[in-house]
Amino acid sequence: MTANRLARLIPQDVRSGSVEIIVINDVTSHLYQPGLLYVALDLAFPENFKKPQKQVLLPGVQNLVDPCVHISLSDREVICQSGKKIEYDILVIATGSVPDFDAIEGFREGAESFYTYNEAMHLRERIQTFDQGKLLLIIGVPHKCPVAPLEFIFMLDDKLRKTAKRDQVNLYYTYPIGRLHSLEHVATWAENEFERRNISSEIFFNAESIDPSRKKVFTLEGEEVDYDLLVGIPPHKGAKIIRDSKVAEGDGWIPTDRQTLQMKGQQGVYVVGDATDLPISKAGSTAHYESEVIAANIAKELRGEQPVAAYNGKVFCFIEAGLEEATHIEFDYQNPPTPSIQGPLVHDFKLAFNEMYWLSLRGLV
């Protein structure tokens, strides 16, 4: 999205070759990650959410499929898996965040998830045959798309009701802090929905280990909880290349100026999306709004001007409240989120955006 927006801002420079825009990918196809929620619940075909990378980039934007293995900020170059070195004048880091499936002992063997394509496909099979018992949902933080676990539980609740299986299934949602969601107003909304739908919940629930053979989760709080089907969202961390290249310490979140989106202490290096350390949700809309600012600032730099466009922390998230209803939240650095009145119209907008995403990716909407 950032590359496409920049190409639209400086079309003559791109056509003449005076500016090269190169996108380095580690995969050949682009995945619309929010679609995995629908895939896991068997509500959409997986093929709907994948397109070749070449198709989502504008003419003039170069697509290089050669995984980047090292970033040298001092030499202003990146090194690819093939050994190719690419020097840069301006670098945009969009390496995202990754689920850490090893953060909780036994997670890989005992838990299902929907945060990667393969995981979503496997969970889809499990849900198709899950007719009775206790479905336990555990959540690690931080994780991207913070409302997705709530969407999953509400959509599954609806799905089970429509197939007359809900009375045989105990939906048990957990959250690691003292409320049902990190955003207070969302937590309050969710609490009312849980009571209305008879969804069980527990707060201050931090999974420490999983015993798949006994189907038990052990928590840091000293609990031992049974399950029949375990669905989990593991904590996320920055991409391996960021941690290996020492671009960021700890879990790999890159220190980023909250307004210009430049990497702190690095001229001509920008960070977009989940890779930042900004105090906002790691969500698709966050990257969307950030890309507008970054593209504008790069265009300014290329003209010898100061980058002055500022990101205000804007985030917009749809929240599916079932199979036919949804709500949404919108917030920024200064204004907290409050869920809108939920209903079928918002749900229809959400489904429409799932289709419009490909236009959005090309910078058209």
Care to describe what's here?
This protein is of the alpha/beta class and 365 residues long. It folds into 2 domains: 2-96 and 239-315 and 357-361, 3-Layer(bba) Sandwich (FAD/NAD(P)-binding domain); 99-236, 3-Layer(bba) Sandwich (FAD/NAD(P)-binding domain). 29% of the residues lie in helices and 23% in strands. It is built from 10 helices and 20 strands. The strands form 8 sheets. It has a 4-stranded parallel beta sheet with strand order 12-11-10-16, covered by helices on one side. A hairpin with a 4-residue loop joins strand 6 (77-80) and strand 7. The chain starts with a helix and ends with a helix. The model has no long low-confidence stretch (mean pLDDT 96).
Sum up the structure in keywords.
365 residues, alpha/beta, FAD/NAD(P)-binding domain, 2 domains, 10 helices
Give the oligomeric state: single chain
Q: Radius of gyration, rounded?
A: 21 Å
| CATH fold description of the largest domain | FAD/NAD(P)-binding domain
The main pleated sheet reads as: 4 strands, parallel
CATH superfamily label of the largest domain = FAD/NAD(P)-binding domain
Strand content: 15-25%
Mean pLDDT: 96
Structural class call reads alpha/beta
Contiguous helical run count: 10
Secondary-structure arrangement, i.e. CATH architecture of the largest domain: 3-Layer(bba) Sandwich
Helix content: 25-40%
**Ends distance:** 11 Å
Shape: globular
Encode the helix/strand succession as letters: HHEEHEEEEEEEHHEHEHEEEEEEHEHEEH
Outline of the structure:
This protein is of the alpha/beta class.
